[in-house]
Design goal:
The chain is of the alpha/beta class and 476 residues long. It folds into 2 domains: 225 residues, Spore Coat Polysaccharide Biosynthesis Protein SpsA, Chain A, CATH 3.90.550.10; 184 residues, UDP N-Acetylglucosamine Acyltransferase, domain 1, CATH 2.160.10. 21% of the residues lie in helices and 30% in strands. The protein is built from 10 helices and 39 strands. Strands 13, 14, 16, 17, 19, 20, 22, 23, 25, 26, 28, 30, 33 and 36 form a 14-stranded parallel beta sheet that branches. A 7-stranded mixed beta sheet has the order 5-4-1-6-10-7-11, with helices on both faces. The radius of gyration is 32 Å and the shape is elongated. The structure holds uridine-diphosphate-N-acetylglucosamine and calcium ion. Uridine-diphosphate-N-acetylglucosamine binds next to helix 3 and strand 10.
């Protein structure tokens, strides 16, 4: 849509009392971004000449959460006069005085209206020639919404808020979605006429249609067929419901792009994540943040990836990973914990009960069992024996471990950083490596084994162990 003559006002100044939350309602996240972030992302797609966000409750927190991601949005402060009418009024006052286009009003708590729906809405408004157009929907349960009261010939007469509605009005099932297009001049004329004379003592934007009708003007209504685009979030139950609908939409979008999703009900994909054709997502998998998954990768079950990059044909099961890069054909899991800065090379392996952090693990290298690898650089073709640990922290500073190509460590090796193992080096089982190991050397730190024959018979006579030992010894 060419939006030179379109301004968008996003209402985000309310507290959201019904959320019962410290966090302002419009900042509650679904699909990886705040509710109002979805509205602003959609607003961005409409390429309007002006996008304004009205703020008041916790205004700094709201502005800080949005300013970086939406640099073109202008934040406008609402004063202490309450209500959606006042919110729109301060925003209209902040528009250039000569702006004479249309104003699309959106709510920061209605994140499901997509760009196609909204541009069709604006087009419909323009085609109708009415000074104002409401988005409405026919719903089973209109509780909480403003009701659209129509006159004898079916035109919009006025909007009545739930708290001001008579029993007859409350029974109306056509609701005001809280999205409107107005001519800027209409708002400049009518907003100053709003009063606080209603059940909530607020300036209702929803009184504008009634005032237009009083003056003999017409108000158009656009009845949406997919009522989910109108769903607003006022409480936590609605937050869950709207979050679920958004996720369904995202999952379906990726299914149609060639991603196999075994169980959409337990698969959660953030709006910013990117998947490729032939990715398979197994049940209970969360693809969060800006995670990118390449073709052929199989993720899950029971896996959470936050801001990760997964290469082609990699396998990641029962894993929790954040800011990790997993190479092509690598395997991760089950029960692996990849923290920020993990980079696993192509065909590498991070196995069961392994935690990694800030670790570059080269192509084809394996950390298969029960290890902690932190602040390490590991070459190619390395195999860390079961329960090899980098001791990277000396209570004061973190230190690095460097491991050359083709190094194999024995089980239960402790690498006390800073330390370096040269290419091809090996360590004995249980080694505590405090000094660098030259390329090709074997590092042994455990004393040679000493067997004290008969110790159990002498010191543990009468125990099961002593009996079993005596049986084995006499059989020989
Ligand atoms: C509003 C409408 C109602 C409609 C519903 C649709 C009014 C009076 N009522 O009711 O007819 O059915 O939306 O979802 O408009 N806000 C401000 N400043 C304020 C008050 C609110 O910016 O002073 C913002 C809120 O942050 C929110 C939006 O406006 O994003 C809507 O406010 P809310 O209190 O949720 O209105 P509803 O009761 O849902
Ligand atoms: Ca609302």
């Amino acid at each position: 849509m060419t939006g030179n003559n379109l301004a968008i006002i996003v209402l985000a100044a309310g507290q959201g009392t019904r959320m019962k939350s410290r966090l302002p309602k419009v900042l509650h996240p679904i699909g990886g971004r705040p509710l109002v972030g979805h509205v602003l992302t959609t607003a961005g797609r409409l390429q309007a000449a002006h996008v304004e966000v009205v703020v008041r409750h916790e205004r700094d927190q709201v502005v800080n959460a949005l300013a970086k991601d939406y640099p073109d949005a202008v934040f406008v402060d609402q004063d202490d006069v309450p209500g959606t009418g006042r919110a729109v009024q301060v925003a209209v006052d902040a528009l250039p005085g000569d702006f004479e286009g249309d104003v699309l009003v959106l709510s920061g708590d209605c994140p499901l209206a997509d760009a196609d729906t909204l541009s069709a809405f604006v087009e419909e408004h323009r085609a109708s020639g009415a000074p104002a157009t409401l988005m409405t929907a026919l719903v089973e349960d209109p509780t909480g919404y403003g009701r659209v009261v129509r006159d004898a010939d079916g035109g919009v007469d006025r909007i009545v808020e739930q708290k001001d509605a008579s029993a007859d009005e409350a029974a109306v099932r056509e609701i005001n979605a809280g999205m409107y297009v107005f001519r800027a001049s209409t708002l400049r004329t009518y907003l100053p006429q709003l009063s606080l004379d209603n059940a909530q003592g607020e300036m209702y934007l929803t009184d504008v249609p009634g005032l237009l009708r009083r003056d003999g003007d017409r108000v158009a209504a656009s009845v949406v067929s997919d009522i989910s685009v109108t769903f607003g979030v006022n409480d936590r139950a609605q937050l869950t419901e709207v979050g679920r609908l958004l996720n369904q939409r995202i999952v379906r979008r990726w299914q149609l792009e060639g991603v196999t999703v075994i169980d959409p009900n337990t698969t959660w994909i953030d709006d910013d994540a990117k998947l490729s054709p032939d990715v398979t997502l197994l049940p209970n998998t969360h693809i969060l943040g800006a995670t990118v998954v390449a073709s052929g990768a199989v993720i899950g079950p029971d896996t959470t990836l936050v801001d990760c990059e997964v290469g082609e044909d990699a396998t990641v099961r029962r894993t929790d990973a954040t800011l990790a890069v997993i190479g092509a054909e690598a395997t991760v899991g089950p029960f692996s914990f990849l923290r920020a800065g993990t980079v696993l090379g192509a065909k590498g392996k991070i196995g069961a009960y392994v935690e990694t952090k800030n670790a570059e693990i080269g192509e084809g290298s394996k950390v298969p069992h029960l290890s902690y690898v932190g602040d390490a650089t590991i070459g190619r073709g390395v195999n860390l024996g079961a329960s090899t640990i980098t001791a990277n922290y000396d209570d004061v500073n973190k230190h690095r471990t460097e491991i050359g190509d083709e190094v194999h460590t024995g089980s239960h090796t402790v690498l006390v950083a800073p330390v370096r193992l040269g290419a091809g080096a090996k360590t004995g089982a249980g080694a505590v490596v405090r000094k660098d190991v030259p390329a090709g050397a074997l590092a042994m730190t455990v004393a040679p084994q000493r067997n004290i024959e008969g110790w159990v018979a002498k010191n543990r006579a009468g125990t099961g162990a002593a009996d079993a030992a005596s049986r084995e010894n006499s059989a020989e």
